[in-house]
Specification:
10-stranded mixed sheet; 15 helices
């Protein structure tokens, strides 16, 4: 099973825009020539908090933007993230032809899910990568996208029996769930529930699993509401709302938020990260990533052949890819395999300048909670949190973790379940 290597050293390098300039990493024989990123949107307002007051007996904070929209704070943070990416990629040798400081249009491709928060995040990343260049994003004009919403759209009949078997096995490993999550439920109750017997009755509901009409599995019981409430608490802290409005004053620092994320993590650990469910939802996006990394872009060259290819979606998309790749991480105060706002799977392809052989560095990168809250400027000296995939055959070269590209692609393709033949993507 692949392991992750957490980076805790700082990268020292030259700061500037990507371009035909001298390489800050010129002494390295491994040169970055292709970037594929799958990013979660930045900090947004809650999507489903209309019933929170009735459920908890407490009045939750008001937000300045409509439900589910990227906030101004979230936009600013993703601009910073784009700037950081530009500095890091230049440090590792990526060069683009520039005209008056801006890259040629075919040098960068950004495809986002159709939601406002994902579109705005794509624009923010570009504003950080190439400020003032006005590079457009692209997205479907339909309400759903095959790349990001495959599970909901049920393109092929899911193997529900296998999915349920895998979920039940995970639930059995922690049985009884009421005991396993007893402390997490008690902490959550203390933080968000009004002090009367009628509040938070959902926390006493039995744990179970059901299937939606489209075949998607859903947990019932405490997690049915607590997962989204915990995410709302995380968003409020990241948004820099007053601490009195973050879990009703029960959060004083980042580690308190992390502790309240346990029931949110349970949703992913028990359901979203099960292999068959992940393959059902992540196969089409995985195919495009691998095609971009191997230059197999004949069908979608306008989207995949660029040196920089960005996809902006949701935490569920990254969870599916992470599960298919067997790549796990634990970063700072976050739960295992957590995907905070702006969290990104970053696929970097390098070539050996002496032999031409190709390698990949696969990383998960995210801001810490306090970096989000303070909008800490990111740089090569103050980097994002990062975990690198590291397994047999990989090696360290200076400040990089490199793995041979061909075996990586071969193993990843073995996980693909839903084929793209006959489907029209990027429309």
């Amino acid at each position: 099973m692949p392991r992750s290597l957490i980076k805790n050293t700082l990268i020292i390098g030259c700061i500037g825009l990507l371009g035909y300039t001298s390489l800050s990493d010129a002494a390295s024989r491994f040169i970055l020539d292709k970037v594929v990123v799958v990013a979660r949107h930045g900090v947004r307002s809650p999507t489903d908090d209309r019933d929170y007051t009735a459920l908890t007996g407490q009045h939750w904070p008001k937000w300045s933007v409509p439900a589910g929209h990227l906030t101004g704070h979230g936009y600013a943070g993703m601009v910073q993230q784009g700037k950081f990416f530009a500095e890091q990629w230049k440090h590792w040798g990526l060069t683009l032809p520039l005209h008056q400081g801006c890259p040629a249009r075919q040098s960068v491709s950004v495809w986002t899910a159709p939601d406002q928060r994902t579109q705005a995040t794509g624009s923010a990343l570009l504003d950080g990568l190439f400020p003032g260049c006005g590079i457009p994003i692209a997205h479907t004009h339909a309400t759903a996208d095959l790349l990001f919403d495959a599970s909901k759209m049920a393109l092929t009949p899911p193997n529900t029996a296998l999915i349920l078997d895998q979920i039940h096995a995970r639930m059995a490993a922690k049985a009884p769930l009421t005991d396993h999550y007893q402390a997490a439920v008690a902490l959550f109750r203390q933080a968000v529930c009004a002090p009367h017997s009628a509040s938070c009755a959902f926390l006493d509901n039995p744990w179970d699993i059901t299937l939606a009409a489209n075949g998607q599995p859903k947990l019932v019981g405490p997690v049915a509401h607590a997962a989204s409430m915990a995410e709302t608490i995380r968003l409020a802290y990241s948004e820099n709302l007053p601490l009195s409005e973050v879990a009703f004053g029960h959060v004083r620092q980042a580690k308190d938020v992390g502790a309240l994320m346990a029931l949110h993590a349970a949703k992913y650990d028990l359901v979203s990260d099960t292999p068959e469910y992940a393959r059902q939802g992540g196969s089409l996006l995985m195919t495009q990533i691998l095609d971009a990394l191997t230059d197999d872009t004949s069908r979608y060259a306008s989207h995949l052949a660029s040196p920089i290819v960005l996809f902006v979606g949701h935490d569920t998309n990254i969870a599916q890819l992470q599960t298919m790749l067997g790549f796990n991480w634990q970063l700072a105060e976050y739960p295992r395999n957590d995907i905070p706002p702006g969290g990104s799977l970053v696929f970097l392809r390098f070539h050996d300048a002496t032999s031409g052989k190709q390698f990949i560095q696969l990383s998960f990168m995210t801001r810490s909670l306090d970096q989000w809250r303070a909008l800490t400027p990111l740089s090569l000296q103050v980097p994002m949190l990062e975990a690198d995939d590291f397994h047999k055959g990989c090696f360290r070269s200076d400040d990089k973790i490199l793995c041979p590209l061909s075996p990586f692609v071969r193993q990843a393709r073995q996980q693909i379940k839903v084929q793209a033949e006959g489907l029209v993507l990027f429309q």
